[in-house]
Amino acid sequence: MEFAQLAATSAAVAVTAARKQKIALLAGTLRGLGPAEVMPGTAYLAGELRQRQIGVGWASLRDVPPPADVATLTVTEVDAALQAIGDLSGPGSQGAKRDALGALFARATADEQAFLRGLLVGEVRQGALTGVLTDAVALAADRPVADIRRALLLAGDLRLVAAEALHGDLASIRLAVGRPLAPMLASPAADVADALGRISPAAVEPKLDGIRIQVHRDGDDVAVFSRSLDDLTARVPEVVAVARSLHVTSVILDGEGLGLDAAGRPLPFQDTVSKGGVLRPYFFDVLHHDGVDLIDEPAAWRFGVLDALVPDQHRVGRTLVDTAEQADAAFRAALDAGQEGVVVKDLSSGYDAGRRGASWLKVKPRHTLDLVVLAAEWGHGRRKGWLSNLHLGARDPEGGFVMLGKTFKGMTDELLRWQTERLRALATSENEWVVHVRPELVVEIAFDGVQRSSRYPGGVALRFARVLGYREDKRPSDADTIATVQALSP
Predict the structure, then answer these.
(1) Are 239 and 217 in contact (CB under 8 A)?
(2) What does residue 255 show for φ and ψ, rounded to 5 degrees?
């Protein structure tokens, strides 16, 4: 298949609002992919590379050759070129990458170059989310959506599922030790009373602010994977050592890797990630044990297996509760220990891999700030035609505002319509992507924490920021200062 066809499909999906039409467009293209093209082609339609990262960023794309007049690239050729670029390393590799990238871009038309840029920097704006593409694979393969979703949960890789569904044997995809599966995720709850209103009795566990790890062991072979299913094994020898110390033949464990300070308290997330120190594993679930798959067993059963298998010092603590008072006590204890909150778990639930369902509910203390909107980006997909992604600024007492980050979360359609009209009236300049506005509109933002950041001038950024509402009763001079935000940083 020509690479231009994928670029055209992506562009068509980007301007299509209806989900069914997106699915039909994607399915039509998927059907045309040959066996060797399905994995890279599916990745491209999802807006990513098959290799995920190849060491190319915006700086490498500033001086690419002019586009070709005629489309000649195939999907296989593009994938091979990107793989070769990613494999380059050592002295002189950056120059070699630029040369190889230039050769690839020289063969690409203008539309193909635009698509390639989006893939390389992770900014393909088409609205082909995993759920949409999963349904498209089912339609292309003429298989029940439930079969594709189950295979995706077990494989953790839609590219592989598409390849087996279209040209292989979907039944061959089973839970396999050594092959990561998409982790189960928690949905937010307003507070512990809200969580206990939905799940009771329940297990309450501290929510660790570390690196999600999935550990596979088969005999002496150990593999450690991240939340995004990247292989971390070589980077976490201490986790590998703990896995090998367990009295087990084969196992798959879910947990968190956490950095600790000299006093034994958890380090901030960014320090755990950046300092490269010892990562101590804490496990909270077991998905497979000595040849037996456990993902469909109730959580209470899995917890029993976990407790018998993993010593206390490498397990996340767990409290069984049936009242809000008990849950609140566990919540306060987690915060006092330096953790970021708790996860409330349904004892009767299976392990719903790859999904953010109602069986796990996370509760964190809610922080809010009054910030000023500095600019807004045009939405895409369902939000096309509305200003969506807000640029947020804190007040500088010396004058002006300091940008802290962006958010598009927490907005209803009604709010999107209102803010588009209001921000257009405040516009000072705009282009096809972003509208810059006079800093006059105050918005209340909830967030989960503040972290240090070299990306923004204030040296800090908000984690998981979302809009609570606009505060037209407040003036920009009433907004929180950059010093207030910096004081929240660890």
Answers:
(1) no
(2) -170, -160
- Quick count: other Cβ atoms within 10 Å of Cβ 144? 10
Q: What is the pLDDT of residues 191-237, one digit of tens each?
A: 899 999 999 999 999 999 888 999 999 999 999 999 878 899 999 99
| Residue in the block written with tokens 């964190």 | 364
Cβ-count burial 9-38 (b if 16+ within 10 Å, e if not)? bbbbbbebeeeeebbbbbbebbeebeeebb
Query: Does the annotation count 207 as an active-site position?
Result: yes
Rounded distance between C-alpha atoms, residue 398 and residue 457, angstroms: 14
Rounded Cα gap, residues 286 and 303, in angstroms: 7
Query: 132 and 42 in contact (C-beta within 8 Å)?
Result: no
CA distance linking residue 235 with residue 259, whole number of Å = 14
Task: Say if residue 311 is preceded by a cis peptide, omega within 30 of 0.
Answer: no
pLDDT in tens, 287-306: 999 999 999 999 999 999 99
Q: Tally Cβ neighbours within 10 Å of residue 324.
A: 17
Q: Which two tokens stand for residue 182?
A: 């998409």
Which residue matches tokens 């494999």? 87
Rounded Cα distance, 151 and 359, in Å:
21
The one catalytic residue among 207, 345, 364, 406: 207
| H helical segments located in 278-412 | 299-309, 324-336
